[in-house]
Amino acid sequence: MVKVVALDAPKAAQRLGFLEGAFTVPDDFDEMGRVEIERNVRPRQVRLLLDTHLLLWAAAQTAKLPSAARALLADESSQLLFSAASLWEIAIKRGLGSP
């Protein structure tokens, strides 16, 4: 087996640090404009479509929910939605004796 390599093969480009020393990034870069960005970008209302499991956990077993999910569900600006099929599924399983 033979490997063919060009005699003047270009050097691989450096992916990380290729602009090192060209400019500096302020230490507070990740905080600059945070308030303005949150005010302009953050949605005013989040619409959450809950499946059957999440609907049951939100109603009866909130400890099973991750803290981020609990925060979204508790936020008064969040619009909580669920399908009528979830209620139908709960009724069927309850009728079958599922807890």
Record keyword descriptors for this entry.
99 residues, 4 helices, mainly alpha
Written description of the protein model:
With 99 residues, the protein is mainly α. The chain has a domain of 35 residues. It contains 4 helices and 2 strands. A two-stranded parallel ribbon has the order 1-2. The longest helix has 12 residues. It is elongated and about 75 Å long. The model has no long low-confidence stretch (mean pLDDT 82).
Concise overview:
37% of the residues lie in helices and 8% in strands.
Give the helix/strand layout.
Elements: H1 34-41, E1 47-50, H2 52-60, H3 67-74, E2 79-82, H4 84-95
Parallel strand pairs: 1-2
Overall average residue pLDDT:
82
Structural class computed from helices and strand pairing? mainly alpha
Distance between the termini: 66 Å
Number of strands: 2
Number of helices: 4
Shape: elongated
The percent range for helix content is: 25-40%
Oligomer: single chain
Strand content: 5-15%
Widest sheet: strand ordering: 1-2
